Task: inverse folding
């Protein structure tokens, strides 16, 4: 029985992507070899890498605009350090919207001064800060576009005099935005893009080569760009799965269509959270994430009953993160509306029984 997968990441992928990826493990495109036994220097894999990077730029509307897409290992967590290594000369500005921003700030502090221009820590990160001043002389401003743990998401982006860079790990490819607002963005693949093991970084090339420090090759964006993300052996399976998912995004009608579907799914679920007398939403309404819907039970003593209700319906991955508690419904691109409808039904039946 296929389960309804609300996991935060690694998380749901389109079934056809999983089918194609598993076929390629047995044999890639009738070449008589598995994807995972061919050289990354083979023409087959080079073409996979090229198509993946081209599709990233196409889908984000960044073709011929001076951007490069690269694939790196080490997760989004390594990007907390790499961004600073490559871009932070003296000081950088950060907006602190929760756990992942805190980690990014910690790494950047190793390399220079960090100005925390704003933070939503005062309310356990349940909102996106709006009023702040970005220093003109900062090397860049770093934001986390979607806060996976706290369920908040930027709906518009800071108007900044300096380069805007963003961790988009949990909302990449989920909505139609103007990606050219950003000089750099990165995302671990394991939420809306593919399998764990690879991280996408998209960089406007003109922002590089400005720091005076000597950047080690494996941390240097330039080396990845120059080597087509193959200065060492790339995680071939993770890159291939990402390519399959990028093709799937295109086949669905691109970001415009996914944007519509994701908003519709999120609004259905938030409407139920607001209507249902047993639950309450965590994030400030105007900043609610369309990817991670966080809600809590009004009466915590009923948690075992509610857990039984959704688990009995083959729903998985709904437990909230320990820093918020309650429930987190991660409703990434591949989650079908039927899963949302089932969760809503569980919440309604639960209310009938316990209100
Ligand atoms: C917004 C965000 N940034 C960074 C990370 C860390 O990603 P990784 O595990 O790929 O290092 C996560 C993981 O959940 C995340 O949600």
Result:
């Amino acid at each position: 029985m296929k389960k309804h997968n609300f996991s935060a990441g690694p998380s749901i992928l389109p079934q056809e992507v999983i089918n194609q990826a598993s076929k390629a493990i047995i044999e890639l495109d009738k070449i008589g070899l598995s994807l995972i036994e061919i050289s990354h220097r083979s023409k087959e894999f080079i073409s996979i890498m090229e198509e993946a990077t081209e599709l990233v730029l196409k889908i984000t509307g960044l073709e011929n605009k001076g951007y490069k897409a690269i694939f790196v290992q080490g997760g989004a967590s390594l990007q907390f350090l790499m961004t600073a290594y490559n871009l932070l000369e003296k000081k950088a500005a950060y907006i602190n919207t929760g756990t992942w921003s805190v980690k990014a700030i910690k790494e950047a502090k190793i390399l220079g001064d960090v100005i925390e221009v704003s933070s939503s820590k005062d309310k356990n990160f349940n909102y996106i800060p709006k009023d702040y001043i970005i220093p003109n002389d900062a090397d860049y401003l770093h934001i986390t576009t979607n806060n996976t743990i706290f369920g908040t998401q930027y709906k518009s982006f800071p108007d900044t005099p300096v380069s805007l860079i963003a961790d988009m790990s949990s909302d990449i490819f989920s909505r139609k935005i103007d990606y050219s607002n950003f000089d750099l963005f990165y995302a671990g693949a394991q939420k809306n893009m593919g399998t764990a093991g690879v991280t996408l970084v998209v960089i406007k090339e003109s922002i590089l080569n400005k720091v005076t420090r000597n950047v080690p090759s494996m941390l240097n964006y330039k080396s990845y760009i120059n080597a087509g993300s193959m200065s060492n052996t790339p995680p071939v399976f993770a890159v291939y799965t990402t390519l399959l998912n990028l093709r799937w995004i295109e086949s669905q009608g691109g970001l415009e269509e996914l944007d519509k579907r994701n908003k519709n799914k999120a609004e259905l679920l938030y409407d139920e959270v607001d209507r249902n007398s047993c639950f309450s939403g965590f994030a400030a309404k105007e900043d609610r994430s369309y990817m991670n819907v966080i809600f809590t039970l009004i009466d915590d003593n009923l948690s075992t009953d509610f857990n039984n209700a959704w688990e009995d319906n083959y729903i998985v991955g709904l437990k909230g993160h320990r820093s918020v508690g309650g429930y987190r419904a991660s409703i990434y691109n591949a989650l079908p509306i039927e899963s949302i409808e089932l969760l809503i039904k569980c919440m309604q039946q639960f209310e009938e029984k316990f209100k």
Q: What stands out?
A: The chain has a mean pLDDT of 97.
